Amino acid sequence: xxxxxxxxxxxxxxxxxEEQHHDHNDHREHQHTEASAHEWDVxxxxxxxxxxxxxxxxxxxxxxxxxxxxxxxxxxxxxxxINFKLYKAMEKVSLLMRDSSEGDSQKETMMDFILSWTxxxxxxxxxxxxxxxxxxxxxxxxxxxxxxxxxDVQVVSVETWKQHKRIDLWVNVRLVRNGKEELHAVLIxxxxxxxxHDDQLARYKTIFDQECDEYIPxxxxxxxxxxxxxxxxxxxxxxxxxxxxxxxxxxxxxxxKQPDTESDLFNEFWLRYW
Length: 274
Prior knowledge:
two-stranded antiparallel ribbon; 2 domains; alpha/beta; 5-stranded mixed beta sheet
């Protein structure tokens, strides 16, 4: 069941509740309140972590609105069909990345570690170990550097450095494509839900370019900012355009609708809502 379908269920439930609890004026005329689609855009709700296990609402919400939302979520349990559908949808919430913490909760650090692990799992030495995981990791790497990971592409080595000169993740990829060796150097800046600051994209790019010029001038360079948001904020897009970075949503790098791999770690990070 997709998030959009969950949203439609919620809207339908709201409309039904309004129908059943409509008010009457002195002339016995019915007054209806229409449910608005944007109010219950569940894809956004889930993507931003507002649907927690047991549907608790984060404390960061305004008290009045939080109480109203709690009441609405409690009302959902009165409808067994919707309750079951929502329960099934909430199975897709990540136990690794989502708990009761507020704010960023060090998610960017987790992104650094798991991206590093994911990209290193693409090396040829892992091709016969957990094949579904291997293919998924290759897909993410290819998506990141713009290489279609066909059977004739072999990843020889992947080296990663976390927080080298404050760059979130530096990745060097050596691969063979159509019998020719290629070297790719990737600068990755991770943003869970925060924005850039202090002209950091320009500063990191300068550092990255200087070291590439000195040590690996032959490498094809990639500058990527990855956000955990479902949509690309305009301000972040403008900052990336200004500094020649590619802005990517984390969900765009992998197909989260596909079946689970052999790795719980991969599944919880890449194939779950958080």
